[in-house]
């Protein structure tokens, strides 16, 4: 099955070493083991995990040259997607994984230890809170999120973390035209602009995906992000 992952990623221009394949294999084992104790994912069949978690996470290379990124934060990381696969394939990255459920954070800490991943920080809390801390505010080259939320809300969660000139990428599926239109005001308020939307089909599947790629153009007013639950209840 891991050879299948290797084949699919080669179509994205990613070549895996045997060590990286072993890391993905162990990651899958830990995911299934822990999923019996806590809710990590509804996707557990190995081929589906490869397509919908591993390959999907790494499809970012269709819209971003990861060699230009030194630091990233994954907002609402859940079981570690896309942050952990990105760290495995691009070990030079400094990665922060943020989630509001401490049980998931404990899982991610174990994964980082088992896979011997260095320079990984696991953060337990809300995106709105950590974005106010100097150690994280406007400190990252790249912010990524596969969280299920509208783009206006995600932008308010994520853009505060990236430096001026940094990039926010939202992983999306389905029709997103209306969502993009509705996010224009939010991006303007948050001192950001839409660079492009990369639409594609995951290798050897019929799964349609989009990467919404946003650049931060100026420093953000201190009042953003607003306190919970305003970003989700009253999107900009």
UniProtKB/TrEMBL annotation:
InterPro entries: rRNA_ssu_MeTfrase_G, SAM-dependent_MTases_sf. GO terms for biological process: methylation. It holds the Pfam family GidB. Its main location: cytoplasm. It is found in: Cytoplasm. Its EC number is 2.1.1.-. Transmembrane segments: none annotated. S-adenosyl-L-methionine binds at residues 76, 81, 127-128, 146. Keywords: Cytoplasm, Methyltransferase, rRNA processing, S-adenosyl-L-methionine, Transferase. The keyword Signal does not apply. One of its GO terms (molecular function) is methyltransferase activity. Belongs to the methyltransferase superfamily. RNA methyltransferase RsmG family. Specifically methylates the N7 position of a guanine in 16S rRNA. This is Ribosomal RNA small subunit methyltransferase G. It comes from Ohessyouella blattaphilus.
């Amino acid at each position: 099955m891991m050879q299948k992952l290797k084949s699919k990623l080669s179509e994205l221009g990613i070549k895996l070493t045997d060590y990286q394949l072993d890391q993905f294999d162990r990651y899958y084992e830990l995911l299934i083991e822990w999923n019996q104790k806590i809710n990590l994912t509804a996707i557990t069949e190995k081929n589906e995990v490869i397509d919908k978690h591993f390959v999907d996470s790494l499809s970012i290379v269709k819209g971003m040259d990861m060699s230009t990124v030194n630091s990233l934060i994954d907002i609402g990381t859940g079981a570690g997607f896309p942050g952990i696969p990105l760290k495995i394939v691009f070990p030079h990255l400094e990665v922060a994984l943020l989630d509001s459920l401490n049980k998931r954070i404990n899982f991610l800490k174990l994964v980082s230890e088992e896979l011997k991943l260095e320079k990984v920080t696991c953060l337990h809390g809300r995106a709105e809170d950590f974005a106010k801390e100097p150690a994280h505010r406007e400190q990252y080259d790249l912010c990524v999120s596969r969280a299920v939320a509208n783009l206006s809300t995600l932008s308010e969660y994520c853009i505060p973390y990236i430096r001026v000139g940094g990039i926010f990428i939202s992983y999306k599926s389905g029709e997103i035209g209306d969502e993009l239109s509705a996010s224009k005001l939010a991006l303007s308020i948050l001192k950001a602009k839409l660079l492009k939307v990369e639409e594609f089909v995951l290798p050897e599947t019929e799964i349609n995906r989009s990467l919404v790629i946003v650049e931060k153009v100026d420093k953000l007013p201190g009042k953003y992000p607003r306190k919970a639950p305003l970003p989700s209840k009253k999107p900009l």
